[in-house]
Amino acid sequence: QGPPSCPGERLTADEMDEQRRQNVAYQYLCRLEEAKRWMEACLGEGLPPPTELEETLRNGVLLAKLGHCFAPAVVPLKKIYDPEQTRYKAAGLHFRHTDNINHWRDAMSHVGLPSIFHPETTDIYDKKNMPRVVYCIHALSLYLFKLGLAPPIQDLYGKVDFTEEEINNMKRELEKYGLQLPAFSKIGGILANELSVDEAAVHAAVLAINQAVDQGVVARTMETLQNPHAMLVGLRQELAGPYQEVLHQAKLEKGSNARNRVIPEGEDVYDWCLTQAEIQGNINKVNVRGALEEVDNALERQDVLALHRALQDPSLALRCLQRHNLELYLEQLSSDLEEKALELGYLELLEQEEVQAGILTANQRDEKERAMLRAVSRINAAVRRGVAAETLEALLDPTAQLPHVHPAAAPLYQHQLGLLQCQHPRGELAQEELFVAVEMLSAVALVNQALDAGDPSRLWSSLVSPAMGLSGAEDANAQRYFEDLLQLKGQSRKAGAEFLSWNDIQDSINSTNSLVQDENHRAHAVQLVNQALLQADPEKTLAALLLLGPSLPDVTLQTAPRYHHVLCRARRQKAQATEDNGAELWWEEILEGVCQANQDTAAARSMALGTAAINQAIKEGKTSQTLRVLCNPAVALHGVLSACAGAYQEQLGALMATKRPAGSTKPSWVRHTLPDGAEFYLNLQTLEGSWQRPRDGSFNSTHLSREEIQVRAGQGCVAPLASPGLSWCPVSLQAVIARVTAAHGRERLWAANVELVVRLQARLRGFLARRELAARRHVLREQGPAAIRIQACWRGYRQRRAYRERLHYLKANTEAAIKIQAAVRMWQARRKYQERLSYFRKNIKAVVKIQAFVRANKARGDYRMLVHTKSPPLGIVRRFIHLLEQSQHDFWEESEMLRLQEEVVKRIRANRQLESDLDLMDIKIGLLVKNRITLQEVVSHCKKLTKKNKEQLSEMMSVDKQKGLKSLSKEKRQKLETYQHLFYLLQTQPVYLARLIFQMPQNKSTKFMESVIFTLYNYASNPREAYLLLQLFKAALQEEIR
């Protein structure tokens, strides 16, 4: 809501007083809002609402930043404590925040603001007088506007609205501290009086200027402005028209604000007229506007000399102007002007701060350019000397404006830059060339670091960085790049090169891409092989294998069925192992399968040829020849003994005799079946082997084969062939050999081991008997727990039955059992007591002597301690207190001391209250002298102070009418004792009060110390309370440090 309005009906005195307090609260909120908006315009950042502005100003950060705005030399940003307010938000106010407040006060003194406006540090830090702080900000704004260092402050009275709750809160806050609102409307007059020499002459000149502005005559206004008594500076005749227009507008605005505002302090002429400071501020404003227009014209014409003249205008007060940077100024300010036009959507002059910022930016650019050229020269000199450490130091210079340099790669920079420098026509690298070279070398250094760290992801990010500039790098080959480059780096390190060069990296990537391309071609061929395996066509499988070319040697047409069979079997086994019907063979598995098929072919052909040789030797009937071919490793027969050569020939000959030819002609092909179901065919005439069935389909029936003899032999011994893929032997031949060898061996064995067989039989019979006994014992052990459980159940049943019978008997005779127990216990106790009593009666004299001796010894020891000890224990003193002499005088002295201590405490309290009242009276008298409060307020405060002193004096002179502790009731006495315990605990345990002090607001902690802490410790009137008070201060300091 806005300012409270007066109702039409007559108000009571209380209502009028309440409305006046609300008016004061609203006016103060408006002043806070004015100060907030002015500070936002100066600082360029948002501030909290006016209801929170007072609390925000207490840490002094915003005030110090404000001081930096108009006095940066006095308050540099690095001097501001806690500029981001992180310490304040985390732990509240810190004593170092007072430095910010002092910096602000130093800045105001530096610019010349009269000290009468300066607030004290405690007014801000302890929030003792925040209206005075806001008053100072208003005075500072007017003074800075006069100097042209800040914009004018707005008059928002009646233009802003506040809620009723905000007004009531501010009213209660002002009443709480008992502060009077300063006369904000009289700031201009006070400032003029403080700054001028002849107050009357200045006042008359200012009023004449206001009258001339009202008349609207430009010449008359300019004449009054040039009056020396007005003490105005910076006047320009060519700006007389703008002076009249701006001053007239400012005077109309001030008059409008004055009509909307209720002035409780009484009407003043400067409430309607412009003050000398406001006039000077508007003149400075017009001068700055004119100078900025000159700057804009020079920028539009791109005239360097005109820009230089415009920038040298004293009204702009620009710093750090350098004539050799005029071209940079023109370029920077033109750019700023274009950016501002694009941002706003229309053409607008640059502000004074924007022009200053552009000049500083151009100066920084020039400094950076000069420093860069010097740094590039140092780099070239260092590279030319060939010392890697010096080159690295020169490259690390930030003024060179080069990319990031890695110190670990100093030799790399030195070597590569030295090569570039030697190849350069001028023998010296420019900054742009150094930038590109260092950027690329830094990227190469990152690649080397990633290889040293063994980080593939970091290596890939370095390879694809634009600074690296590599070609052909593919994401899919990142891991291969890492492995190949790591191997290449190891080789180069062995050769003495610590770092890989850019060419090494590019060559490695090209080589890796070529290898990957070959692998992709191989993968495509492997895919075709897997697709061919899905079809029952060995020729397609052979065609797919031939696509692999040189990487898969010894692929023959005759072995094609075996290739197909072995690879299909490997694929089925892989599908079963992985439980994936779509599993495919990899390159290694295909290579292994092809090698296995070749080995199977060689082994099968050797086995078939060996079998044919055995058949031929049997036909010829030569025992020695038959024995020799039976020992052929290709046939893989086991257990062949030379002693059984005749038997072998006889048995095998008989077996061959049972074979009869199927026709008149004997076919030349023989079939051999392998354990995996595959069939191998051998031509007995050409000795040609094949995995494909002959076209005529007929086989030699007289040839001993494995399948035919296996049915006749019934069993055989199978041994592995030379190839690991085949595991079988001709069962017919092996069965005959095994049978003959076994018969020969058994005959010799029985003859040589008769006694051993007898002992073996005896041991077997003993083993059978022991096994039967162990089985019986095992049955018994297995059934043992069941037998034990049955026995336990039976015993438990009997025990429970006996227990129930006994319990029933006892319950039937409960009273008799109780009597018996009582009689027994009584007899035992009586006997023990009588025995002890009889013992004492027999030794009564010894007991008396021992007791007397102990008591006497204890008394002597206590008395000796009382006499000779400086601080005897309390129990000993209490025991001999009756021996001490006390008189009525001692009691009187003690009571008198207590009374005097109470009197001192009362006087201390009264004196402190009088001091605070006198301080407030001094403040009001000072304000009265400066015309900021009325005389009636001072008189009323004096009367109130005199009345309070009289009441306190009458209280001290009056006789105490209380009756003491005896008049307290039992409940109040208990409450008093409870408070005594509480105060004793607070005195002896200072940590509670120490923590409480720092939990309270800063503005209340001092009052809390004066009113509660010193009273609790009785103002340290005796050594004990002084010691406890020091302990409290110690704990408080520890808590603050923590």
UniProtKB/TrEMBL annotation:
GO terms for cellular component: cell cortex; plasma membrane bounded cell projection. Pfam families: CH, IQ. GO terms for biological process: mitotic actomyosin contractile ring assembly actin filament organization. Gene3D superfamilies: 1.20.5.190, Calponin-like domain, GTPase Activation - p120gap, domain 1. Residues 29-144 form the Calponin-homology (CH) domain. GO terms for molecular function: actin filament binding; calmodulin binding; GTPase activator activity. Residues 663-696 form the WW domain. Residues 153-180 form a coiled coil. Keywords: Coiled coil. PROSITE patterns: CH, IQ, WW_DOMAIN_1, WW_DOMAIN_2. InterPro entries: CH_dom, CH_dom_sf, IQ_motif_EF-hand-BS, Rho_GTPase_activation_prot, WW_dom. The keyword Nucleotide-binding does not apply. This is IQGA3 protein. It comes from Malurus elegans. The lineage of its organism: Eukaryota, Metazoa, Chordata, Craniata, Vertebrata. The gene is Iqgap3.
